[in-house]
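Appendix B. Worked example

We walk through a single record from start to finish. Start with the input: the chain for DUF91 domain-containing protein, Kutzneria buriramensis, length 178.
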Amino acid sequence: MWWPRESDVTRWLADHLDCLAPHLGVRHLEVIGREVVIGERWSTPGRYGIEQTAGGLRLDLAARDEHGRLVIVEVQFGPADHKHVGQLITYANTADAALAVWVVADSDPVFSGDHLAMLARVNAAFAGRPEFRVVGLTLESQGTLVPGAEVPWVPTLRGVDPATQRYTDCSTAGPVLL
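Next comes the structure step. The output line below is what the pipeline stores for this chain.
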């Protein structure tokens, strides 16, 4: 069981940034835009942002940390790939982000050692400005699978340090029914 679309994962992350913050070394994140085009106004009253996909570079999520620094999030639905790494680097540079986060949502997120080594090298080359982070997102069931029963699924985030390629402790945001 999984989210039906990438936009559902993005929406969940936007509503649960408090679960993502500890993996990024920040205490608080506030959404300033969801599915926004870089260079456009990132927030409007009553909405997460400007929903656009045609033209320009489209960020999945834009947020500010407790210090007012820009944090961008590139969400990937499915196994990690080169395309999303390149997008993340391009978006971070274009938006002048302080922190760029690649969230891979899959049943078994596997980050290539090459991807992690490259992001560690980019972090070192740019002295951490922007700093790149990697987080895996899975849904894990709680309880026994009974045919026809609604099973609560717990979203679980696991951070990965690109330099050491070590996973941080997992965090959960409470069960959701799908």
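Two observations about the output. The two ends are 7 Å apart (CA to CA). Helices lie at 6-15, 17-24, 82-95, 113-125.
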